[in-house]
Design a protein that fits this description.
two-stranded antiparallel sheet
């Protein structure tokens, strides 16, 4: 299934459960925080299966937030890319990002 098809099916899932029609962005933000914590734990434990699950859950919650706010997740993603695409720099091995002009 493509990313776009998965997004559409996820929106349908959220609509069928009343999340998009009745949900609140802040309620979904609480859920996003919970899922982000699960991702942190999975990465810390170096558990690939739990990492995949947590990233997927985060994508679902982001899709619900977009649905509630009448946004499109792919459009938000592209907007972020457009903002960063021309930035220069690199991440050093010590974890410090060095910006270039």
């Amino acid at each position: 299934m493509t990313f776009a098809m998965t997004e559409i099916e996820t929106v349908r899932w959220g609509e069928a459960r009343g999340i998009i029609q009745n949900g609140q962005p802040m309620g979904q933000m609480v859920k996003l925080f919970e899922e982000t914590t699960e991702l942190f734990d999975a990465i810390h434990k170096k558990n690939k299966e739990e990492t995949i699950d947590a990233i997927g859950d985060i994508m679902v919650v982001l899709t619900m937030i977009c649905g509630i706010l009448d946004l499109n997740l792919a459009d938000c993603y592209e907007s972020a890319y457009q903002q960063i695409k021309d930035r220069k720099g690199y991440l050093r091995p010590d974890g410090v990002f060095v910006k270039s002009e």
